[in-house]
Amino acid sequence: MRIPDYPSADAEKWSAVDEYFSHLLAPADAGLEAALQANARAGLPAHDVSAPQGKMLALFIRMQQAKRVLEIGTLGGYRTIWMARALPAGGQLISIEAEPRHAEVAVKNIANAGVSDRVEVHVGAALDVLPTLKAPFDLIFIDADKKNNPHYLQWALRLSHTGTVIIADNIVRGGAVADADSADPNVAGVREFLRMVAENPRLDATAIQTTGEKGWDGFAMAVVIAEHPHIS
Questions:
Q1: CB contact at 8 A, 118 and 144
Q2: Among 45, 125, 113, 64, which residue's Cα sits nearest to residue 84?
Q3: Whole-angstrom distance, CA of residue 126 vs CA of residue 135
Q4: For residue 125, what are the contacts with CB-CB under 8 A and spacing of at least 6?
């Protein structure tokens, strides 16, 4: 069982339910299992999404008929594989990873899963890479250093169009997101991100708490409902 970031007395029950859902609706296959095993061997943090969460992202892509996806934070590529498999023919996923060692593992995992033809991994700090990317993207997933979430949101908006879905992961922080006095820079970054989302007239959004093998967490999801005012 994965050790959750935020332990709870109910962690085993949450993990058991995730295992049940995974077996029934998001069964493992060789490519995904190999990615998790490679990540563990390389000593990468066990921060991968659960299988049901990976399947949820794949369904979002299919429901939206997204052709271009941006992922900020690759880690070992497990989530990348889920999303890349959901792309239509000719689709493209661009992923950004700051840690060269993580990116090296991810590239091998992506190749082993057979989706290299639709994935492009950029190595470097996201705030350096984002200005070099061509807009727009249909879905943007944010899961990197939380203190920079406000900056990632600004770039997501620049790289979006009306209808783009923006998702930010790991926003609950074990409940700390509700603490306005938290000294944790990651909590502060998430809170500022959420404030910016709530106040931006271009966005319609919500946030969801989740429990599972990763513990108590959650994500925010927004839809861009208007073009940037400087775009005619």
A1: no
A2: 113
A3: 15
A4: 98
Q: Give 114-179 as a DSSP string.
A: T-GGGEEEEES-HHHHGGGSPS--SEEEE-S-GGGHHHHHHHHHHT--TT-EEEEE--SGGGGGG-
Per-block average pLDDT, block size 10, for the chain (232 residues)? 77 95 96 98 95 98 98 98 98 98 98 98 98 98 98 98 98 96 97 98 97 94 86 44
Q: At what angle do helices 100-112 and 30-41 cross, to 10 degrees?
A: 160
List the structure tokens of 134. Answer: 């061509």
* Gap between the Cα atoms of 222 and 150, Å rounded: 14
What distance in Å separates the CA atoms of residue 113 and residue 101, rounded to the nearest whole number?
19
Residue 114 near residue 80 (C-beta atoms within 8 A): no
d(CA 19, CA 213): 8
Q: Distance between CA 111 and CA 6 in Å, rounded? A: 32
Terminal Cα-to-Cα distance of the chain (whole angstroms)? 52
Using the structure block, give the residue that is written with the tokens 């990540």. 39
Residues 6+ apart with CB under 8 A from 60: 66, 139, 165, 167
